[in-house]
Amino acid sequence: MSDSNNDKAPTLKQMLQSILAGAFGVQSGKNRTRDFTHGKPSHFIVLGVLFTAIFALGLFGLVKLVLYLAGI
């Protein structure tokens, strides 16, 4: 029962889902195998760096907002 989706490179949506799942530690074995077999490392590196930057900036902005609302 091979899935025809496993025979081609992951789409942008699938790569984003893999990045998010990997960041939270809930990546499935099936998706991990697909990513390592058919995905390009450079795509995952770029998306991972972008995700990390956006996540860090989001946390920074949230802390600034909380401090501003607290009057500090």
How many strands appear in the DSSP assignment? Answer: 0
What is the percentage of strand-forming residues?
under 5%
Largest sheet: none
Q: Report the helical percentage.
A: over 70%
Shape descriptor reads: elongated
Spell the H/E element sequence.
HHH
Mean pLDDT reading = 87
Characterize the structure shown.
- It is built from three helices and no strands.
- The chain is mainly alpha-helical and 72 residues long.
Structure described in brief:
The chain contains 3 helices and no strands. The chain has helices at residues 12-24, 29-38, 41-70.
Features:
single chain, about 70 residues, mainly alpha, about 75% helix
SSE layout and pairing:
Layout: H1 12-24, H2 29-38, H3 41-70
